[in-house]
Each structure stands twice: as C-alpha cells, then as structure tokens.
Specification:
- Helix content is 40%, strand content 16%.
- The protein is an alpha/beta fold.
- The protein has an 8-stranded parallel beta barrel, surrounded by 5 helices.
- The longest helix is centred in the first third of the chain and has 16 residues, at 8-23.
- The protein starts with 7 loop residues before the first helix and ends with a helix.
- Bound molecules: iron/sulfur cluster (SF4).
- The site of iron/sulfur cluster has 12 residues, from helix 2.
- Iron/sulfur cluster is lined by residues 39, 41-42, 44, 47, 49-50, 89-90, 136, 149, 152.
- InterPro entries: Aldolase_TIM, Biotin_synth/BioAB, Elp3/MiaA/NifB-like_rSAM, rSAM, rSAM_sf.
Length: 329
C-alpha cells in the first residue's frame, strides 16, 4: 500500500480550483429514493440488504407503496433536494413498473431521473424519463469485486453501461471506499472512468453493518477519502462527483467539497432536517466556501400537509412533514 501522499493539501487545493472553475459554487443535497427493501441477489458482503434476505418471508411486502415514493419526490422538490437515483434491489419491480414510476417522478421534479436498479438487458424500454444509468461497481479493485459482490459481475455492469451510452443515456458508477481497496487502485478507477466515459461518480464510505464481515471494520480515514476524490477530480474536471458521508462523519463534508464533490448524500434527510445535524451540514458547506442548493433547516419550505399533485399522497406528505419537525436528536 502506498502511504498517504504528503501533498494532500496541494491535491485538494488543485481539485478545489478545478471544481470551482468548471462547476461553480453550488453544492447539492442528494437523496437516493428506494423502491423496495428486497434484493434477490442479497449476497454483497457489505450490504444491509444481504442481512435481511433470510428475514423477509414475503418479498412483495418489502416493496414500498407507490404513493409514498411520489410523496417523497414531492418533498424533495419542495426542499430543493436532488433525487440521486431511484434505487431498488434486484427482482423487486418490473422494467415497465420502474419506467412508470420514473415518468411520474420526472413530472414531479421537472427533470429526468437517474436509475440504480441493477443490471438489466431491457434498457431499450426506457426513454426521456431517464437521465442516466448507474452501474453499481462498488469496489475499486476488480479482484476484490468477485469476492465481495459474487452475483453482480463486473463485466455485466460494464456491458450495461456501454449499452446505456449507445442509447444516449448518461452513465454513473457507485464506489464504496473502505472495502479493502488501496490508493494504488485509483489508477484502475481512472481507467474505468475513461474506458466507459463515465459522467458521474458516486463515492460512499463503508458503513460497517452488523451481521456483515465488515461489522468491526473502520470507515476510511477522511484524508484517504479526500485523496481519492481529489485525484479523480483533477483527472476529470467535468464529471459530476457525489460523496456520501454518514451522520457520524459530518466533519468529512467540508473536506470532501474542497476535494471536488458537487453533491453530498447518504444522510437520513428527513430525520436530520432542522436538527443540530442538519445545521451542521449547512455550516460545513458554508465553511467550504459554497452555497447549498436547497435547505436542511428552513421549515417554511416543508409546505402544506396537502399534496400539490394528488390527494392520495396527502397522508404520506403529512408523515414526512411530521418526521422533519420531530427533532429526533
Ligand atoms: S445487489 Fe445491491 S442491494 Fe443486492 S445485496 Fe448487492 S449491494 Fe445489496
């Protein structure tokens, strides 16, 4: 393993300038909208869903109610949060169901949505409701990939991304740091982004879930995360970079923004809204010299308990507003 570069501050400084020059000073709050809590594969070593597979007797019950999904999108619109992507485990919804949900969400948000709903050979079914396709590459090391995600073959993900490009969709990948990769793997990641002409990279840091082999692993160091992101930003000035941090790692946010993040994600947004943690996110963004698109604290933006789209969403909108005002912390 290569030791942490002593010039990390130089890298971050360079990455920050490149980001400001190419993307401006707006930072987005990104929310992954889940379609279900079931995954038929259920064997990725780090994944919470892998701990649930045997506990879910009836997968159809793990699907979320569709009006609840739309209500969540309506709340994202009100608070000016972006939808990171629609996400769901394998074998939860059919392609046509996903297309219908995406179409309605596009109508709510006024913009096409990204998908992260697994490897599929039915991309032709999608149209302008979809902005881009996400390949859940997850691991920045192809040898580790086989062990960690045995049922999600890298070749199949790569083929899907190629096809997505041929069909005119944008392309994204997800990468989790802290799974055993090292800084030496950044070159592989750079090659992958070049080869498949990736438009958007979403980084997460490992969240060591109980009952997984990572339960006692540490999350990656903040400056390790910063070095990976800075080097990718310097190599690819134009791509969009989203960085995930968990609620226990909010101090990473400022550092990751200075390293090149355009957006931040992976928070329990409604739970954190208006709390000291929501305020902390806004402070992190401010002290990185950026403006936050959307709000984590402005209660007026939560709006009325009635949906502006469909009365069948009302009860879910009410629930989101209640959760946002609860101050659980
Ligand atoms: S395919 Fe996705 S949801 Fe399923 S176990 Fe792997 S990471 Fe989790």
């Amino acid at each position: 393993m290569i030791a942490m570069s002593s010039n990390i501050f130089d890298l971050m400084k360079k990455a920050n300038k490149i980001t400001l020059d190419n993307h401006g000073d707006l930072v987005t709050l990104e929310r992954a909208v889940f379609l279900s809590w079931w995954c038929d594969k259920g064997d990725c070593a780090f994944c919470y869903m892998s701990t649930q597979k045997n506990k879910i007797k009836d997968p159809s019950k793990a699907k979320r109610k569709i009006p609840n999904i739309y209500a969540e999108a309506e709340m994202c619109k009100r608070l000016n949060w972006n939808i990171e992507f629609l996400s769901g485990g394998y074998e939860s919804f059919t392609t046509l169901e996903i297309k219908k949900i995406a179409t309605n969400i596009k109508n709510i948000m006024g913009d096409g949505v990204w998908l992260n709903t697994g490897i599929t050979d039915e991309l032709e079914e999608f149209g302008s409701e979809i902005k881009g396709i996400t390949g859940a590459v997850e691991i920045a090391n192809p040898k580790l990939h086989k062990k960690i995600c045995p049922s999600k073959e890298l070749d199949q993900i790569s083929n899907m991304l190629e096809k997505a490009g041929d069909l005119g969709f944008k392309k994204a990948i997800t990468i989790i740091l802290g799974l055993g990769e090292t800084l030496e793997d950044i070159d592989y990641l750079i090659d992958y982004i070049k080869t498949y002409k990736i438009d958007r990279v979403i980084f997460y840091s490992l969240n060591p879930h109980k009952e997984t082999i990572y339960a006692n692993s540490s999350q990656p160091a903040s400056l390790y995360y910063a070095e990976v992101v800075s080097r990718i930003r310097i190599e690819f000035p134009k791509i969009e970079i989203i960085c995930g941090t968990w609620i226990d790692n909010l101090a990473n946010i400022g550092i990751l923004i200075l390293s090149g993040a355009n957006g931040i994600t992976k928070f329990p947004l409604f739970k954190m809204f208006g709390t000291k943690y929501g305020k902390r996110v806004e402070e992190e963004v401010k002290f990185a010299g950026r403006k936050l698109k959307g709000t984590f604290t402005d209660k007026n933006q939560l709006g009325n308990p009635q949906s502006e789209i469909d009365p069948s969403l009302d009860k879910f909108i009410k629930r989101y507003i209640k959760e946002s005002l609860k101050n659980k912390y």
